Inverse folding.
């Protein structure tokens, strides 16, 4: 008596790749990436860290713990949440998983851009607002997203 093996439609569409090959490689496609639940946990922690820095003064090139520029605040917040980000807003954009506005969640990064260049970053707080360190003479605060020229990124 021969055993029948049911091959799911995913495997059937692949063609010559075996089910074993797919099973082994699919778990290795993205080593080091976290699932959505883990990303949400890191993002929620980072958002809380950023909010805890309310009132900290802006200082160009500063990444905490008491003064921040925009990307310094996001770098510091995610580092405290256990995730590593590069230093500048543009580098952080390049490192995140880009998502649509309709997919944004609290804790995602909001990147302000002019053309293809990112010039500012904050952490999405919900309700169309971000936590950010705006500019010289200002402090870390929650503010309404003031531009339509924004992209969203999720830290992996």
């Amino acid at each position: 008596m021969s055993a029948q093996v049911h091959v799911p439609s995913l495997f059937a569409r692949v063609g010559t790749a075996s089910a074993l090959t797919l099973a082994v490689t699919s778990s290795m496609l993205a080593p080091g990436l976290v699932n959505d639940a883990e990303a949400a946990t890191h993002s929620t922690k980072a958002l809380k860290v950023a909010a805890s820095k309310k009132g900290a003064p802006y200082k160009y090139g500063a990444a905490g713990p008491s003064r921040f520029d925009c990307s310094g605040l996001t770098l510091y917040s995610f580092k405290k949440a256990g995730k590593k980000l590069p230093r500048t807003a543009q580098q952080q954009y390049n490192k995140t998983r880009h998502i649509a506005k309709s997919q944004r969640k609290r804790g995602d990064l909001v990147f302000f851009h002019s053309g293809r260049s990112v010039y500012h970053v904050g952490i999405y707080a919900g309700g169309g607002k971000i936590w950010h360190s705006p500019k010289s003479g200002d402090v870390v605060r929650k503010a309404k997203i003031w531009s339509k020229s924004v992209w969203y990124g999720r830290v992996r």
Observations:
- The chain is about 30% helix and 20% strand.
- The CA atoms of residues 79 and 85 lie 7 Å apart.
- Residues 36-52 form the longest helix (17 residues).
